[in-house]
Amino acid sequence: MQKGKIGVSSDNLFPIIKKFLYSDHDIFLREIVSNAVDATQKLKTLAGRGETSASTENAKVRVTLDEDQKTITVSDNGIGMTADEIEKYINQIAFSGANEFLEKYENDANAIIGHFGLGFYSSFMISSKVEIVTKSHKDGAQAVKWSCDGSPEYSIEDAERDGVGTDIIMHVNEDSAEFLNKERIAEILNKYCKFLPVPVVFGKETEWKDGQEVETEKENQINDINPAWTKTPVDLKDEDYAEFYRKLYPMSEEPLFNIHLNVDYPFNLTGILYFPKLKNSIEVQKNKIQLYSNQVFVTDSVEGIVPEFLTLLHGVIDSPDIPLNVSRSYLQSDSNVKKISSHVTKKVADRLHQLFKDSREDFESKWDDLKIFIEYGMLTDEKFAERAMNFFLFKNTDGKYFTFEEYETLIKENQTNKENNLVYLYTSNLDEQYSFVQTAKDKGYDVLILDDVLATPLLNKFEQKYTDKRFVRVDSDVIENLIQKEDEQDEMSWEEKDELSPVFQAVCPDTNGINYIVDFKNLGENGQPIVITRNEFMRRMKDMGQLQGGMNMYGDLPDSLNMVVNTAHPLVKKVLEDKDQKLGDALTTIKTDLDAQKQEREALEKAKEGKKEEEVPAADKEKLEDLSKSIAELEQQKRERLGEFGKENKLTKQLVDLALLANGMLKGEALDKFVRRSVDLIK
Predict the structure, then answer these.
(1) 643 annotated as a binding-site residue
(2) Ramachandran class of 27: left when φ > 0, alpha when ψ lies in -120 to 50, beta otherwise
(3) Residue 81 labeled ligand binder
C-alpha cells in the first residue's frame, strides 16, 4: 500500500471546499455524476478513434444508496484511471502552486471556482471518507483503490474491479444524514442530471400492483439523454416542443410559442425558450429559465445573466462556453455570458418579428398575452426596444390592431392639434371610461386601449422619443380640450363663472381625500352638463409612484379631479337663473359695496405710485389696510351666500351627482340620496 499527502501542504483546502466553495451542498452529486459522464464520453471518443479495445456497449452511470453502510456510490464504465493518473488528477488537484493559490484567495474562495478542477473534492462536503476504485481502459491495467478521510493524507493500493471504469464511494458524515434518503437523492438527480447525455440510473422502476407501489426488475433511468434542444428544429414537431415544455414545467399552462436557439459562431449555444401566457401584471417569476453547460444543469437563477425582461421567458439555454463550476457573480461578469445574453436578446426580437411577418393574424390573436413581455423588454433594453418597433401593436376600442406607423397614418389628419402635435387618445378601462370613449368616437376620433400595468412608463418613453406626439387618456379633459383645434369661444362671462364656481364647489363631495377643482367650458348644448376629468400629468406621476414604490412627491399627493361645468347646457343656465332669482338683490348690494371699495382702493394705490414708503400719509396706509380687509370680508360673504344657495338648490346637487355617477363615484348614502332626490324632481 502506498501512502502520501495530497499536493497541498496547507490544511486550508478541505475547510474551503466544505464551507465556501459551493453555496449548495447538494451540488456534490452533480459534480461526481458529471465527472462520471465525462469519463464515459471520453471512452466513447477513444473507441471511435480505435484507440482502445474497451467496450462502450451499455455505457451508463449508476448511483447507488446504501443506507445501512451510509454510503453513496457513483459508478461508471468509462475511461478509468491508472495509479499514475490518480496521482496526477486527484493528488495534485489539477493545478500547481496550490499553497500560493490558497494563500492568495483564502478570503475569496469563489475565485477558485471556474479556474481549477475541484469538482471531485466537492464529495468531501458531505463525506467523512471518500474512496475511489478504478480500472483504466489501457490494456493490462491494474485496478487501484484510493482512500482519503478529508485530511491531506491518502492511501492507494491495488484492488479488484470487474471491467473498466470508476466507482466513487462517499461515506456520508453525521452532519449530512439528509443525503441518506432515497427521495432526497432522487430529487437532486432530477434537478441537476435529468438531461445528461449518458444514461444515469438510480434504483428500480416502480409500478402499482395490488393497490401498492412495488419495484420492478427494470432499472430506473432518471434522465433524457437527447432532450429537445439538442435536436435540430427540422426534426421536431409542435407536439415535441409542447411535450418538452410539460416535462420542464408540469403544472404550467401551455405557452404561446417558442424560439429554438442553435448557434455555433461566435460561440456555441443551443436552447429552447418559451413565451408563457402572462396576466395583466408583471409576473417576474424566478427559476423559469434553466441554464445548462453541455446538458449539465448550472443554475435557474438567471437574473443578471440574461437581460431582465428575458426572466419572463421559460425554457433552457445550454452553452459549453459557460463554465460549470462558477459562482453567480463570476457568471455575471464573464464575457462569454454577456455575449450570449446579447445574442439571445437579438434572437428573441428576430423571432417575434418573423412571427409577425409570417402570420400577423395569429400574432394579433396572441398580442394580449404577449404585450406585457414586449413592453417590459422595450422599457428595460434599448436595443430590444429599437427592434420591437417593427412588431409592437396598438389595439383600439374596436378590437383592431395597428403598428406604430399604421396608426399614425390612421389618425394624422383628424387628431393633430393646433400646435401640430399628433394626439393619441386612449382608455385604461373601457367600461369605467365608456362615456368619455363614446364622446371621443362621436367626434370622429379613434381611441386606443392601453390597460396594463406598464402603459404609463411606456407612454412616457414614447413621448420622450417622439416629441411631436402626445398620449392623452380620454377622461383627462373635456373632448374639446383633448385635441384643441382652435381657441375656445364662450358666451358665459367671467363674472357669471365666478359666481357659479362657489355654487358647484359647495356640493362637491368631501370624501376619500379627493380635491375637486371647478372649471367652466363650452361643451355645446348636447354635451353633458358636468364632466369629471383627471389631469393627465398628475395621474401619470401617481401611477409611476405606485409602480416604482417611490416618487413619493407625487405618489402621496391626494387625488385632484376637475369638475368641468358645461356653460352651454340648458340645465346649467337654469342654475344660473335660479341663482339670480334667489340671490339677485343680495348679490347686487354686495357687488355695489365691493365695486365702490375696490375703486377707492385703486385710487389710493394710484396715489402711492412714485412715492417712497415713508412719504405715504399714515391715514392713507390705514385706509388701504381697512379697505383690503373689508373687501376680503365681502368676497367671503359673497362666496358663503353662493355656497348656501348651491347646497339648497336640488338641481345643482343633482347635476354634480350625475357626473359622479357616470364615473362610478357615487355610492352608499350619497347614492341613496340621489335616488330619492331624482324621484322628487320627477314628481
Answers:
(1) no
(2) alpha
(3) yes
**Tell me, what amino acid is at 275?**
F
Q: Is the pLDDT of residue 344 over 60?
A: yes
pLDDT for the residue 669: 87
- Is residue 171 scored above 60 in pLDDT? yes
CATH topology of domain 494-609+618-682: Four Helix Bundle (Hemerythrin (Met), subunit A) (1.20.120)
Give the DSSP per-residue string, 606-619. Answer: HHHTT--GGGS-HH
Q: Is 31 annotated as a binding residue?
A: yes
Locate 550 and state its grid cell.
Answer: 417611490
- The residues, ordered by sequence, that sit 6+ positions from 151 with a Cβ below 8 Å of its Cβ are 11, 14
Give the residue with greater pLDDT, 612 vs 282. Answer: 612
Fold of 2-207+214-221: Heat Shock Protein 90 (3.30.565)
**How far, in Å, CA of 330 to CA of 325, rounded?**
10
| The predicted structure's pLDDT at residue 105 | 46
pLDDT at residue 117 above 50?
Answer: no
Handedness of CA 222, 224, 225, 229 (dihedral sign): negative
DSSP letters of 153-193?
EEEEEE---SSSEEEEEEEE-GGGGGGS-HHHHHHHHHHHS
96 carries a ligand binding annotation = yes
pLDDT at 571 over 60: yes
Candidates 3.40.50.11260, 1.10.10.10, 1.10.1660.10, 3.30.2010.30; CATH matching 392-482? 3.40.50.11260
Residue 545's pLDDT is what? 62
Per-residue confidence band for 186, with pLDDT thresholds at 50, 70 and 90: very high
Q: Which three cell numbers mark 586? A: 343680495
Task: Write out pLDDT tens, residues 388-404.
Answer: 999 999 999 999 999 99
